[in-house]
Amino acid sequence: MAKLVKPRLNFWQIWNMNVGFFGIQFSFGLQQTAVSPIFSFLGAHHDELPLLNLAGPVTGLLIQPIIGAISDKTWSPKWGGRRKPFFLIGAILASLCLFAFPFSPELWFAVGLLWILDAGNNTAMEPYRAFVGDKLPDDQLTYGYQMQSLFVGAGITLANLSLFAFQHWFSTPVEGGGLFSGTEESVSSIPTWVYYSFFLGALASIGTILWSVWKTPEIPPSEEELKEIQEHNADTPSPMVQILSVLLVIFSVPLVLGYITAEVYPQLWDNINLGVIVVLIYAFFWLYILYKLIKKNKTNKTLKRLGATLDPLLEAAEAIGVMPGFLWKLAAVYLFQWYALFIYWQFLPPMLRTSLYGISNEDNDRFNGIMESFKAGNEINSADQSFAENIQSLAEQALGHAGLMNGTYNFVTMLVALALVPLASRIGSKLVYVVCLFLSAIAMLSMPFITDKWLLLAPMILFGIGWAAMMGIPYAMVSKVIPEERRGVYMGIVNMMIVIPMLIQTVSFGPIIKNYLDNDATNAILFAGVFFSIAAILALRLNLPKDQQTVQ
């Protein structure tokens, strides 16, 4: 198939195309900074935070490649084209969840909403990455993805600064009985001012996506490509049926086997991390068995129908089998980079509680015990009330300052994202990426030792530069080595490289911090700094093919 010649776009066309990424990243910004503190407000302990964030990697691992493969074979002029229907649906789902999230009455409710929110965000995310590659010629790819990186910074900046600002503007003093002024049935440790950031995020998520959908037409497929799409979809279920069927087939057997195993070995109910690992192992072997059955029995009608339903997953598996060597090297970098990032997002507010505000693990346990006792209808003495109110006030300040810090690094990202384009052209994308990863490592390794809240903004400048590179440069490099006609599925695979390290982190880091890092959030951030350093060293191996090295 002849390569499509794409028209060059001007600044405002590229701007409008990427505006919707602002809303998606506002949502992610709230997840990064506010979700783990909300879990803590609802009674979660440090070693439980990684597993409670399991929704992100699991939904990313499943949803992104499935949506990527389906969108590659989609053309619906009525609903916007190839990619836009998917990130519009994702934005609507995410907006509804953002609105409901701060009303969570219990920890289990908040965790369930996080799963739905992440599914919506991932439905929007992958097609948006492919959308930029669909629209831009090769010589504008770095510019396009760095513009997307700019909106990553802008969306997360506003999300985090809203937390900082609303904490200062609308925080209600808890001293004098405020925390215990409601009935035991209605009391909630989630501050009211947090609600406003989530409401703003819900509006941003749907509003900016609608802007991009309205302002940016998709490039229609050629007659040959359209014929291919129509033939492919003739005997294929609808996208919604495909998605639901894939999720049902993937989850059903592993969950049943996991339940049976836990009944045989009851200790799995007590060690939930180990239980999740067992289910994931079952899932891996189950998918491998399905893949082999479908491939070896192409004439079997039942298996053929199952293969059509699981086509997006099978296509992703086949694409991995012929994946360019560059992507395997990038996967090694991403293993350490994204493991470290997930630690940072989960443990920055807990680190600040300890390093900046002096709250110990014992203080957290005492606070949770007091709140549980109050919810049970017991009378709380004045000393315990005063202690709990002080801890609540300091925890809210830690969350607000985490918002300022995360807002700072994302503001820096917004400023430097486009500046990295000419720098990458001059010295090479790989070198820029390596240096920026080392800057992120320095930021992580210095933060736990800084006890002045304003000096803590200095490492955020380094991290902001690193984040700008992480959000743009690898995608531009990948776009130059993957086949045009499979851009969606390969961008989904790249995002699998992101969520697999996150998945590993959620099931492994809880035991690590509990048993080897003294359950100390400051040690967790130092651990992340070491992993960023390893990622930077591995990134030295990222060499583009010679015919692509001059195209930045």
Describe the model:
- The structure is a single chain.
- The protein is mainly α and 552 residues long.
- It folds into three domains: 9-170 and 188-234, Growth Hormone, Chain: A; 236-322, no CATH class; 324-545, MFS general substrate transporter like domains (Growth Hormone, Chain: A), CATH 1.20.1250.20.
- Helices cover 75% and strands 0% of the residues.
- It has helices at residues 11-41, 49-52, 55-72, 84-100, 107-135, 141-170, 192-215, 223-234, 239-264, 267-270, 272-296, 301-309, 311-321, 325-355, 361-375, 382-416, 420-427, 429-446, 457-470, 473-479, 487-515, 521-539.
- The longest helix has 35 residues, at 382-416.
- The chain is globular, with a radius of gyration of 24 Å.
Rg over CA atoms, rounded to whole Å, is 24 Å
Under the CATH scheme, the architecture of the largest domain is Up-down Bundle
From the spread of the alpha carbons, the general shape counts as: globular
- Sheet-strand content, in percent, reads under 5%
Helical fraction: over 70%
Give me the CATH fold name of the largest domain. Growth Hormone, Chain: A
Estimate the mean pLDDT confidence: 83
Main location: membrane
Pfam families: MFS_1
Domain Major facilitator superfamily (MFS) profile: 326-552
Keywords: Membrane, Transmembrane, Transmembrane helix, Transport
